Amino acid sequence: WLKLFSRLQFLAGPAVLVMQTIVAEQAQRLREALATCSDVDLRSVVEKVARDLEVLSAGASAVVTADVHVPQLSSTACLLGHRGGVNGVVAVDAEHVVSGSEDRTLKVWNLASGKCIASLSGHSEAVTCVAALGAGKFISGSEDKTLRIWLNGQCLATCQGHTRPVRSVASLGSDMAVSGASDRRISVWDTESGENLATLSGHKDQIWCVAEVSEGRIISGSNDRTLRVWDVATSSVAFSSSCVATLEGHAHCVCSVAVLGDRAASGSKDKTVRIWSLNSWDCVAKLEGHLTYVRCVMFVGSRLVSGSSDRTLRVWDLSTSQCVGSMEGHTDSVACVAALGNDVVASSSDDSTIRVWKVS
């Protein structure tokens, strides 16, 4: 479809530009309808249709040509088993990954065999995110507004406090985690008891992503088009927090964030990836190439991998800000990317699969 739209534009530009406008308007109307829709299953369907329309609109607005100078990378494995889009994937040790899906389950996979070795149930709505906590333990977030902490196939604790769906979760050391949700709140949790230690407020719209910057510091990205950096401190008697920086530059919502050392990368619905200095708070690079919004980013050594609703992943050389690899294979939007070590990543997609890739 993308290639067809681009060719039509080249041959008969005005007609296709009208078509692009119509498609974009329909996507926007669906987005507006989502804001008032309370049916979770219906929201999932409408969200997918809106994303597909946005991909078609993007394809009509730019001549799509093959990246003849960019190596095309093939996946080395495809993990099948979920019955809905896979929203999150993370490595829990050197041999296993865990995925969370629209089908309301988490699955544990053996990387060597590509087989699912456990399927975990407990969430009452779609699983939206998952993060490793160390020693085989992990935490999941859901549309059901809760987070669950898991070990050896058992739910150890349920974290309750968010009033809207949980969108992102990240580990904070060995005994805490941080989550961001559609209620515009960031919550810090004790991963032993499930207790809510603190709630941070400041974003003006729902939060899509959170990550640890360093001990005592986190970063969040929001629908309000900004990232915020927070200092958090705990003691035996109190928990304190403060926003120390607001990073502005994206033209649309911030969908994803990753951190490596003194740099952060953010992916946005504005189709770009931005690299930020965590010392000066400046944007030091802007990476362009995806056709529609960037849902996930991950540092892999000296490179960055991004995944998009255009169904591809891209590998970026951070020293030159150039795309040095493209990964095609997913048949729907790429939702998440996770580093597995040794320049290997796993990606999850709305096509219900997880793929494994070698990026160098």
From TrEMBL:
Species of the source: Noctiluca scintillans
Signal peptide: 1-20
Name the UniProt record assigns to this protein: Guanine nucleotide-binding protein subunit beta-like protein
CDD domains xref list: WD40
One GO cellular component term noted in the UniProt record for this chain: cytoplasm
GO BP terms, alphabetized: proteasome-mediated ubiquitin-dependent protein catabolic process; ubiquitin recycling
PROSITE patterns in UniProt: WD_REPEATS_1, WD_REPEATS_2, WD_REPEATS_REGION
Keywords recorded for this protein, A-Z: Repeat, Signal, WD repeat
GO molecular function terms listed in the Swiss-Prot or TrEMBL record: ubiquitin binding
SUPFAM superfamilies per UniProt: WD40 repeat-like (SSF50978)
WD repeat spans: 79-119, 120-150, 159-199, 200-240, 247-286, 287-326, 327-360
